[in-house]
Write a structure and sequence with these properties.
This protein is mainly alpha-helical. Helix content is about 70%, strand content about 10%. It has a three-stranded mixed sheet. It is elongated, with a radius of gyration of 25 Å. This is Cation diffusion facilitator family transporter.
Length: about 300
């Protein structure tokens, strides 16, 4: 199974849906449908940026970036969350206000219904795949706890985007039906406003999580406790004074350990102990790529 299968499925679905929505919105003069087209186009761009971030984060460390390029993924994930608001949310809100000020009589919604049905099929299928993939990571945790503790933004960004897409389609579908049924042209603008607000809320949530990762999150308390046990089990160690950690990428953690060694050790004994402790930590926690151990008092 391709590791980025969820992103590629969402990318293909959103690109196809965006084209269909724009064509339908142009022919039926539906502002809500055009807003949904913008939404799908933004989601398509977001998936491309996520793939770019993943690719850049895999670059090997060099003289310019001695700790690697892992944070590229966190940077581009933050950009994606901003784009959802800056383009998707703001344009939808602008179109909604414009349509409320200058309402357009509703056209025959037949083709809009066809487009909505196709969009539900594609976006719904992409959401199901995203849910299945995220459940593998979630385990027994609650959904929000799993998102908050996740160090891989690609896993929950697609989940949030697809959820917002499906909810947006539901809103547009309901308002489209009511607008045609009641012959009320204002409901199309209301639908655009609701979609814009929905995208804004999703953007804020994603920006919050992506920013936290970009600023540098450390390993969990339980993991710190286990590492402390591994280090203090070595016969040369008296006590672990402090553990500092930060995720460089979802698969790479940098550790800085301040350790008090026993007083009767010489330099060679401490050097051997450091190598031995590093190997023991990496065996238990392969994601600990960078381990710096400093003697302290």
């Amino acid at each position: 199974m391709h590791p980025n299968r969820t992103i590629y499925i969402a990318l293909a679905a959103n690109l196809l849906i965006a084209v269909i929505k724009f064509i339908s919105g142009a022919f039926t003069r539906s502002t809500a449908m055009l807003s949904e087209g913008v939404h799908s186009l933004v989601d398509t761009a977001n998936q491309l940026l996520l793939l770019l971030g993943i690719r850049l984060s895999k670059k090997s460390a060099d003289a310019k970036r001695p700790f690697g390029y892992g944070k590229e993924l966190y940077f581009w994930s933050f950009i994606v969350s901003l784009l959802i608001f800056a383009i998707g949310g703001s344009i939808s809100i602008f179109q909604g206000i414009s349509h409320l000020r200058h309402p357009v009589p509703p056209e025959d919604p037949f083709w809009n219904y066809i487009v909505l049905a196709c969009s539900f099929l594609f976006d719904g299928g992409s959401l199901v795949v995203a849910i299945i993939e995220f459940k593998k990571v979630k385990g027994k945790k609650s959904w929000w706890t799993a998102v908050h503790q996740s160090k891989d933004p690609a896993s929950f960004l697609v989940l949030f985007e697809d959820s917002a897409a499906v909810l947006g389609l539901a809103v547009v579908g309901i308002m489209l039906y009511l607008g045609h049924k009641l012959n009320n042209p204002y409901l199309d603008g209301v639908a655009s406003l609701i979609v814009g607000v929905l995208l804004t809320v999703v953007s804020i949530l994603l920006a919050r999580e992506s920013r936290s990762l970009l600023m540098g999150e450390g390993i969990a308390t339980a993991t710190q406790f286990k590492i402390r046990g591994i280090v203090e089990s070595d016969h040369t160690v008296e006590k672990v004074l402090q553990i500092f950690s930060t995720y460089q990428s979802p698969e790479e953690v940098m550790l800085l350990l301040l350790v008090r060694f026993k007083e009767d050790l010489d330099t060679q004994d401490i050097t051997d102990a450091i190598s031995r402790i590093q190997a023991a930590i990496r065996k238990e926690f392969p994601f600990a790529h960078y381990i710096i151990i400093t003697p302290g008092k």
